[in-house]
Amino acid sequence: MSIRPIKRLVKAKPTMEGAGVHLSRAFGFGNTSDFDPFLLLDDFRNDDPENYLAGFPWHPHRGIETITYVLAGTVEHGDSLGNRGAIEPGDIQWMTAGSGIVHQEMPKGDSAGRMHGFQLWANLPAALKMTSPHYQEVKSGDIPDVTDDDGTSARIICGSLWGTAGPVDGIAAEPNYFDITVPPGKRKTIPVATTRHAFAYVFAGSGKFCNASGPLAVPTEGVGWSDTSASEEVDNRSLVLFDRGDEVTVQAGEKGIRFLLVSGKPLGEPVAWYGPIVMNTQEQLREAFFEYQNGTFLKKGKAPRP
User: Fold this and answer.
1) What does the alpha-carbon distance between residue 302 and residue 281 come to, in Å, rounded to a whole number?
2) Which of 121, 110, 108 has its CA nearest to residue 68?
3) Starting from the edge strand earliest in sequence, which strands make up the sheet with 21-27, in order?
4) How many CA atoms lie within 13 A of 168 on its CB side?
5) Which of 28, 41, 108, 151 is deepest in the core (most CB within 10 A)?
């Protein structure tokens, strides 16, 4: 067994999306080849409704999958297929945009005004770019929550861990998506297949992920991946990108640590990307926007009326 070395450590950066939603972006809209098949991870977390209620009004997607995981508040959604509903705390919505969908996502806080969730984008391989759009919606109670002997717990959204499989399946990149909590002071090793790209995103507590040559604390700012000196432990919104290996080891801090652990098989295909549409060539990208402007974008369903 070999511990995955740490390739990059970064702090999620504040940004604004939609109609004025304040969020933190862990990665996305740049060279994302190290994360392939994943394209973007946003952490939308806010206690001020003015910073999120404007939401993400009607917009298109093609060529990708969007994975929304809500921890606090709700996200009301609707789309060009006629679907309507709400993603509630603990729920997951795995949307395959495929050939094209137009949808909206409108965050609503809880009784205290809090809103917290994540959106991950996964690329679709060329052969599935124009597949029919569809959803997998999973309620919180249907997501396995497994606790190991040392008290480490994992919500298994997609993929398998410790002999338990998550409810989301049939995804091209065969991703693993786990929400992991390690108790205070505990050291935990988690298997991750060597053939996958993998990252962890810390959103509560603190800890140190073990590098090939020693532990490396989750940083407050980006640092060189080869710097293995023990820096001060910090809190959330930190992304750890791993290099190759077959396991990830973390040492939890005095308050424990909670993080998303995500991995997938790289597609290794060219990426042509602008905004919410991701194709393989610039010509395909131009065609998608031409269709959107001319009312021929949707191959299934009909354009919603705002």
Assistant:
1) 26
2) 121
3) 13-17, 21-27, 38-46, 115-123, 64-72, 92-96, 134-138
4) 32
5) 41
Q: Count H helices, E strands: the chain?
A: 1, 24
- Furthest C-alpha separation in the chain: 58
Q: What integer is the mean pLDDT of 124-151?
A: 95
Tell me the pLDDT tens digit for each residue of 224-234. Answer: 333 333 333 54
The 10s digit of each residue's pLDDT in 100-119 is 999 999 999 999 999 999 99
Which tokens hold the place of 92?
């997951």
Q: Residue 31 — φ and ψ, nearest 5°?
A: -80, 105
Report d(CA 129, CA 17) in Å as an integer: 24
pTM above 0.70, yes or no: yes
Q: Which residues contact 84 (CB under 8 A, 6 or more apart)?
A: 77, 78
Pull the structure tokens for residue 218. 């989750």
- Helix, strand, or coil here: 253? strand
235 pLDDT more than 60? no
Tokens of 155: 């919500």
74 alpha-carbon distance from chain centroid: 17
> Which residue reads 């679907």 in tokens?
83
Bond from prior residue into 276 cis (ω within 30 degrees of 0):
no
Concatenated DSSP letters for 156-195? EEESEETTEE-SB---TT--EEEEEEE-TT-EEEEE--TT
CA atoms within a 13 Å half-sphere pointing along the CA-CB vector of 114:
9
Locate 129 and state its tokens.
């770019």
Determine the topology of domain 6-264 in CATH: Jelly Rolls (2.60.120)
